[in-house]
Amino acid sequence: QVQLVESGGDLVQPGGSLRLSCAGSGISFSMYAMAWYRQAPGNQRELIARIGRVYITNYADSVKGRFTISRDNAKNTVYLQMNNLKPEDTAVYYCNAGQWGPPFRPSDFWGQGTQVTVSS
Length: 120
Description:
Layout: E1 3-7, E2 11-12, E3 18-25, E4 33-39, E5 46-51, E6 57-59, E7 67-72, E8 77-82, E9 91-99, E10 105-110, E11 114-118
Parallel strand pairs: 2-11
Antiparallel strand pairs: 1-3, 3-8, 4-5, 4-9, 5-6, 7-8, 9-10, 9-11
C-alpha cells in the first residue's frame, strides 16, 4: 500500500524557518518526480516546488529564493526547507509523487498534509 506522510509543520513567527519532510512507503521515490503543494482555506491547491528524477528543481515565484526542495532517495524522503516565512505561507502542505512535465502531473499518491501557520 502506497503511503506518503508529511511532517514538520508548526506554528512559527514571521521570518522563522521550518523544514518539512515527506516519507514514502510502498513506493520508490527514485522512480518519480516529487512535488510540494499547499492549500490555504478557501483556495485551490497550489504547486510550489518540484524536483525531478535527475534533481533539477523548479519553484513558484511566491516561494523562490526562500524555499528549497531536496530529496534523499536512499531514505525515500523529500524535504522542503522554508526560510523567511511570511503570513501568506500559512497553509496545509502536501507532497506528491508524479511526472515532471511541464506541467507537473500529480499522481493520486497524496499524504495527509501538515499544517504550517505563520503568525505573530
